What we know:
Elements: E1 9-12, H1 21-31, E2 35-38, E3 45-50, E4 55-61, E5 69-72, E6 78-83, E7 97-104, E8 109-116, H2 120-143, H3 146-156
Parallel strand pairs: 1-2, 2-6
Antiparallel strand pairs: 3-4, 3-6, 5-8, 7-8
Amino acid sequence: HPITAIFRLILNHWPILKRTTRFVKPFINDLEPNLILKGDSHHFTITSYDRVNMINKILAEEYLSQTFFTLNLNDKNFVYEISVPTCSYRMGVQRMGYVVLLLDSETKTAHLTILSTPRRNPALLLYLFYGIFALIFLIVSSLFSRRTLVQLLTHLR
């Protein structure tokens, strides 16, 4: 029986639209998804798949050129696959963030944006700086008594 939901989303770890036509065509025809959300590469991309011509096209990669990106989900000839960026520093990618996806049932559109997190290396360097500062503070405070530290600071003024 046909699926009657306004939006049909597939959550998946691996890319679907980059597979062979022999796999993609029956999969897309059976499930008729509007959107496929995946997270395998840890990099942000939006890919459109033309069901008639069986052609993939990358619409956005790594970042969005505008604040919100809008997809028309009313056109049954296109399926969109969104690769969600990682939000973890451990993945080793430079651009991290969270995708916010808003589905509008009246206009049958999807609006998405990326909430970027701080870059990996500056954040790690800041943590390193705080760690070294805390370590120096602990060493100095354990070597000297409180009275000695107060006297030392008074002489430095």
